[in-house]
Description:
By secondary structure, the chain is of the alpha+beta class. It is built from 6 helices and 7 strands. The chain has helices spanning 7-14, 17-23, 62-69, 103-108, 116-129, 154-166, and strands spanning 27-33, 39-45, 47-48, 53-57, 72-78, 86-99, 132-146.
Amino acid sequence: xxxxxxxxxxxxxxxxxxxxxxxxxxxxxxxxxxxxxxxxxxxxxxxxxxxxxxxxxxxxxxxxxxxxxxxxxxxxxxxxxxxxxxxxxxxxxxxxxxxxxxxxxxxxxxxxxxxxxxxxxxxxxxxxxxxxxxxxxxxxxxxxxxxxxxxxxxxxxxxxxxxxxxxx
Length: 168
């Protein structure tokens, strides 16, 4: 299986209603290769700007060292219900240092349940803590939506095809 798809294929996956619903969630799981060569997979808040996944982190985050060394990443955005719904995205992380707090960081944390008072206190704390942040921007080069109703993992699709051939 290829790690890249044509832009129209990616758009077809990401424009589906379920994909848009998943892209509106709070957290993704960011998988990358650490500088020591071992895999990492971390939950991280994100926002979707219509063409890219944007995550933000502190300038001293160890993941930045790894992403500078190897920017290939995979993202998983999923649900906690049965059957699970999963959006899998691959791409290359671009790092963008920003003075102050990126708007995306404030947006991506806006969907957590906070009272207006909690929101004001949280934003004041963030603004007092961070002089700068780094935006981790991923443009999808591959995407797959799995809902276990209309789409399945590739391996399971293959088993279904093989079973159909056997029963002919």
